[in-house]
Design a protein that fits this description.
Two copies of one chain form a homodimer. Chain A is α/β, with parallel strands linked by helices and 434 residues long. Chain A has a domain of 245 residues: Alpha-Beta Barrel (TIM Barrel), CATH 3.20.20.120. The first copy, chain A, contains 19 helices and 13 strands. In chain A, strand 9, helix 16 and strand 10 form a beta-alpha-beta unit.
Chain lengths: 434, 434
């Protein structure tokens, strides 16, 4: 038996706005940041659990405050019983009625639950000596169902539906583990497409992406239609007629504007239009999807919880579901979302980039392939090639595919030196600027 | 010209959990709290602007951190130009892309924008010597339209729609101001119905409510069906066949359970069923409304933003829209929501109670009656009779109606002594407990 004795948080920020990495139509100057949490126990193994919430700068201290609000749920608790029932513990955190009021089930409190839940999964995976994707993929179907909070889902998915979906994939899991170890999971890259990059840089990075084995890139759109037409034209010329080019408007439009704008870009055959409007607007996504068909509609990186995703699926409002590792309440809620997507037979192409999102979300896609959907068809994990050097187990992307991670854990652990240097506002990177 | 020179925040909490005031099926033990903000200028008038976000205890410090994140937008700014363009300034706050990421447009960041915007309205109303409702009701229709952020609304409401609605009421505004001053705005009371009260207390408080001139009470339901049937029966017996009795499940149910439960209570002819399920679930509210007809469906106290309300209205998912003074981004967004309700011809019966919600939201309903919907028909403002003694201008509710406030301001200003004593954790109320 061991006791959770350590709960520490850090405000970590990278000055990415200087290079316009990550710039888009809504977010001109992000400083990619992490509200970071470390859990430790009094066990002799010295293992820790690490989790984080990705933010883009100001407000990261609010997210840290939200993490700290949960310290009382963790310190002094028996680690073995928490780790053995992460479904139950996730529900305990979600049921803190005073903290829940600040959402409910959305925003910093919800994301804090996600980081803490993910940190516990990280600790459990390290104790079991497994990468998270494999740990999850070796649970029984019944154990997976027990991880999910079905509240508010039963009009679309109940435990028996979930069990049926999982059972259908059970006997073939081992085959897919082998496939995954052999060929990895497809990636697409957003690296070429940031709005702050000029045409020459964008074209060069598109060519590099193709040469490095990617089959899809993504360009940011939505600030200026003429620019978008020119940039899409250049990208299509560089990449040829069959390469997949997704576009991403980062919530810039209302319904009519979205339809008109995307129709102007449809001649370049976009692989999908991402975040055409408010991430909360199920009915607008449905209307836009009808208006821009056959261009597929994608959203989800700001999808606040399973209730939103359930409705996007029920309303047939999207073609591609883009879950995020740190926007919802963690691994458990993301399993609910993967099950919903499988039930409605929609592709999941996770959002990544940011700080550590690639490292974390790959585990969910790989688990999905092995145990939930059973498919990689038309699916990609986003890949952005920055800030990986700050992680203990950075992603390995080669020839346009994520290699299945072998290291124990859930991927969020940062190097102590990176945390120290980038701690806001006292770390040396920020102190030097002040 | 004057400069905004003061921006201070306070973590104010009342130990309401001791008496089970405010207890419901989701929130068994709230400590009603306020994340409070005070704005001041270097003007000789000494006037301040006050705003707050209502929370229920733990996490109030997270909300205070969210308020503090906006200090940089305010300090040193020219007060006159901000107050003269609160539509523009509200949009400035909503457009801080780094802070927006933590929502977007929901949760603590969004509510912080609400409290700050409301504090600016409070300051402006005090400078103009007007209660907020009257200040708003004396703006031109064009000025009112300019206060609204129409982003994401244009598929349901655009500026020309809004202008048409407002113009239709313009010539008769003065009549309704007279009516309001003469007879006030109808109130209903939730005082009798908290789940933690025993039958005798509930019955006694129902009788008192009727005797004090209320025409509607509200009972909490959703924890135990047998209890609900017994309590509804007692309330109906005490109040007679024609008195309005609303019921409130505080998000406890999924779709099928909601329909079954409400059907069991339908024999008591509830005035509405409030928050039957997740406040985010537009499609579930639509299904529940169809399933429980003719019982009206109400929701909104946790409605995160105008995009959610727009969809509830577009989907014909509700009969009664319950906006809240501190859940969204303040007066400006609530004007958008009132305009949406008027466009879709739905009743608005605001959520109140909590800390200062009655004091604030009455201004919105009165403005709505004078300038937007033009109607009080079937409309009530919730009233809960506690914590008013901590406010500088507490509501006056007599014979079941809110008297139109005459004091300048927007209603949120608390007594300095109340703030001091209830500051968490150092104020004397909390220090004594520690």
């Amino acid at each position: 038996m061991s006791i959770l004795t350590g709960f520490t948080t850090s405000d970590v920020r990278f000055p990415t706005s200087l290079l316009l990495d990550g710039s888009d139509a809504m977010n001109p100057d992000p400083d990619y940041s992490a509200a970071y949490v470390t859990l430790s126990t009094d066990a002799d193994d010295g293992l820790e659990g690490h989790g984080l919430v990705f933010t883009i700068g100001r407000g990261n201290e609010v997210q840290v405050a939200a993490l700290n609000a949960f310290g009382g749920h963790l310190l002094g608790r028996d680690a073995e019983s928490l780790l053995a029932d992460l479904g139950g513990f996730s529900r305990e955190l979600l049921s803190d009625s005073q903290l829940r009021w600040l959402g409910p089930e959305k925003g910093p409190i919800h994301m804090a639950i996600g980081a803490i839940t993910n940190a516990l999964w990280d600790l459990r995976a390290k104790r079991e000596g497994q990468p998270l994707w494999k740990l999850l993929a070796e649970l029984s179907s019944e154990e997976i169902v027990d991880l999910v909070d079905f509240r508010y889902l039963s009009d679309a998915l109940d435990p028996s539906d979930a069990l049926r979906l999982l059972k259908a994939q059970e006997s073939s899991r081992a085959e897919r583990v082998s496939e995954l170890l052999a060929t990895g999971y497809p990636a697409y890259t957003t690296g070429p497409g940031w709005l702050g990059y000029d045409d020459e840089k964008m074209a060069r990075l598109c060519a590099e992406a193709r040469d490095r084995g990617y089959r899809q890139v993504k360009l940011k759109v939505g600030a200026n239609l003429d620019d978008d037409i020119r940039r899409m034209g250049i990208a299509r010329d560089v990449l040829g007629p069959d390469f997949l080019i997704a576009i991403d408007a980062n919530q810039r439009w209302d319904v009519v504007e979205a339809i008109e704008w995307v129709k102007e870009l449809a001649r370049f055959r976009p692989a999908w239009i991402e975040e055409p409007t408010s991430p909360d607007d199920i009915l607008a996504h449905r209307a836009i999807r009808a208006g821009v068909a056959p261009v597929p509609v994608a959203t989800g990186e700001h999808g606040m919880n399973r209730v939103l995703f359930k409705q996007l699926l029920q309303a047939e409002a999207i073609d591609v579901l883009q879950l995020d590792a740190t926007r919802t309440s963690g691994v458990n809620e993301n399993i609910a979302i993967l099950l919903l997507a499988a039930k409605f037979q929609k592709r999941v192409c996770p959002h990544a980039g940011g700080v550590g999102l690639c490292e974390m979300v790959q585990h969910l896609s790989m688990f999905d392939f092995v145990a939930v959907s059973g498919s990689r068809e038309g699916r990609f994990i986003e890949h952005v090639d920055h800030l990986h050097e700050h992680f203990v187990t950075p992603v390995q992307v080669q020839q346009g595919a994520y290699a299945a991670p072998a290291a124990p854990g859930a991927g969020a652990e940062m190097l102590p030196d990176s945390i120290r240097k980038h701690t806001f506002p006292t770390g040396e990177v920020w102190a030097a600027r002040a």
